[in-house]
Amino acid sequence: MADVITQIYNAVDPFRPLEPGDPAYVHCEAERGDANVLLDLGPEILRSNRYTSQLYAGHRGAGKSTELLRLKADLEAKGCFVVYFAAVGDDGDIDAQDVQYTDILLACTRHLLEKLQGADPAPLVSWFKDRGKALHELGQTQVVMESLDVKMLASQFAEMTASIRTVPSQRRKIRDLVNPHTVTLVTALNQFITDAKTKLPGGKTQLVVIADNLDRIVPIHDDYGRNSHDEIFLDRCDQLKGLDCHVIYTVPISMVYSNRANDLKEVYGNPELLPMVMVQTPEGEIHPPGVARMQEVLTRRIQPYLPEVQLGRDIFENEAVVTQLCLASGGHVRELLLLMKEALNRTESLPIPTMAVRRRSPPPATLSPHSGKGPVGGAGASSQTRAIQNDEPHRDLLFRRCLMEYRYFDDEGTLQCWYDAHPLIKAIPEFKQAVADWQAP
Q: Which of 88, 77, 149, 81 is nearest to 113 (CA)?
């Protein structure tokens, strides 16, 4: 039994995106307002006669990485060469707490060099050599410039991105060195891309770059009220869009609802968004199809170890507990898996006792609606009105998943969006008081 619990515990890893074709994948489009990354982002790339730049948004942990990996496989099957990388994470290039556009450009350069090693690196070698002395003085390069090839050049850009991410004392120095030359770097990178597209393997005809996890970038506000999201995605949009290939960037969900949302649309078109799985209706009733999808998320991960598994019989004490767990997740896949792991940690045998499921940890600070700039009153009001205000506090609540977005099509075929507070904060006394205050005459 202990071995089975351990196997299940690792099978519900909430931080591992599923690879394309993984039997654990569950299609949840119908409970997400028909959100389908293959149709929402793919055709724009395959049909356009110009290079496209698209944005993909959604709550962190909703499954965007899994969806983008599906898109990568689909595009590759249709003749595209796709360079996918997770910009933020354990193996990423960027520190989510401190990001500038330059960091993203260097990350794109690094990964294109690593994946397109048959291309002529001469333009980028020339650009790098022009900065060579200054980089050497920063301790960023020890190589002989005359010996640079694609592989070695990629390692040099990897060193720069690693220093920006992990060495704060070097971060500003590297940015100060590269920032004045980003235009020439884009030019050199495009010359490299142009050559690479003539040498794509397997008869591929299109080049696509997918920069994932940029939605994790924390908004930093300056003294003038502007934030880092605006600086990266709007102020530097010409350079983000300047690569001579198709690009997809993930973007923080809060920016989709910012006061510059129209600017974002003008620059990139409508951002595509992956909402939560709808496990309840706007009226607060249980939505059985959504709950069934969340149950299937667990079932498919457990089946390799218990092929005939029934959650309400073999894993939990009854079906009602399974439903409670799915509702507590708010239709958020990572939250569901985290709750499952918590419950497993409180048991030595199956089925998991009901109290082990109900005895959840308090919500983390990132989900505390009374911390930072997100007022608890905003979360309480939105849980009653199912709407949000287009202001900074509500955008902050969206960014930190205190508020969650859901979508569905009504009887007339019109897409409806609605919002609710994260289930784990609804038990917080301050939240309950905010709801009571809102309901008071």
A: 149
Helix (H) or strand (E) holding 65: helix 64-77
Which amino acid does the sequence have at 350? L
How far apart are alpha carbons 301 and 299 in whole angstroms?
A: 5
Q: By C-alpha distance, which of 264, 246, 268, 241 is closest to 105?
A: 241
Percentage of the chain beyond pLDDT 90 is 68
pTM of the model: 0.92
Q: Which domains does the chain have, with CATH numbers?
A: 2-12+277-358 (no CATH), 36-274 (3.40.50), 365-439 (no CATH)
SS3 88: strand
Helix pair 2-11, 288-302: axis angle to 10 deg: 120
**Distance (Å, whole) CA 334 – CA 60:** 9
Q: What is the DSSP letter of 311?
A: I
Residue 9 has pLDDT above 80, yes or no: yes
Per-residue pLDDT at 8 exceeds 70: yes
pLDDT-wise least confident of 113-127, 150-164, 176-190, 386-400: 386-400
